[in-house]
Design goal:
Layout: H1 9-23, H2 30-37, H3 51-74, H4 79-93, H5 95-102, H6 112-119, H7 123-134, H8 138-160, H9 168-192
Length: 193
């Protein structure tokens, strides 16, 4: 008969998430997890097979938390701007999780058209919000999304690494100005086709 679990899966994942939030992904070890839970590492392995399984569960929990930010952004008056703002807010509020999810070196380097669907499972939903809100075709929506993601990723990376701080008003103005100028360009291109 297997030993009774001292901690639930949820408790272990939450502890792992909190360790990464505070000290970064490299700090997530079985020993650190045991200390955080006030135990040895042994009880962790009555629930998980190994640390890789714990790490994967923690990354999934971080993605779920990020997805909450995206969904909040999608409910804004202008959903695309809302998502961009929430992306930056996630980098400010959860800098270590942002770095883990969006600033970790990839094994294979995707091209620009492949990176967004790879890192954001809400990609299609965001694209549809762009088409709907700005009344543009799918290819123009993709172009706008790609440009704005590069721009907001730059701001978010500056925030996540504490290289720079922006007010909410500065972020809103910067996103609006860049979005409107690119939107004007893609609409001109649509009208020429």
């Amino acid at each position: 008969m297997p030993p009774k679990a001292k901690f639930t899966k949820t408790e272990i994942i939450e502890a792992a998430l909190n360790i990464v939030r505070t000290d970064g992904y490299e700090a997530l070890t079985s020993r650190a997890l045991g200390i955080y839970l006030g135990s040895s590492a042994r009880p962790i392995f009555t629930v998980f097979k190994n640390m890789e399984e714990v790490q994967q569960a923690m990354i999934e929990a971080a993605r779920a938390l990020y997805k909450e930010y995206v969904h909040k952004g999608l409910t804004a008056a202008h959903p695309f701007k809302g998502v961009g703002t929430q992306y930056i807010l996630f980098s400010v509020n959860e800098s270590k999780l942002f770095q883990l999810l969006f600033m970790t070196e990839q094994k294979q380097i995707p091209d620009l058209s492949g990176v967004l669907p790879l890192i954001d499972e809400s990609y299609e939903q965001i694209l549809l919000s762009i088409q709907d809100d700005y009344k543009i075709c799918m290819s123009s929506a993709k172009k706008l999304y790609h440009h704005l993601w590069i721009y907001t990723h730059g701001i978010a990376s500056l925030c996540a690494t504490k290289m720079c701080r922006f007010t909410d008003e500065e972020i809103s103005t910067m996103i609006s100005e860049v979005c409107m100028s690119i939107l004007k360009k893609v609409k001109e291109e649509e009208n020429h086709d």
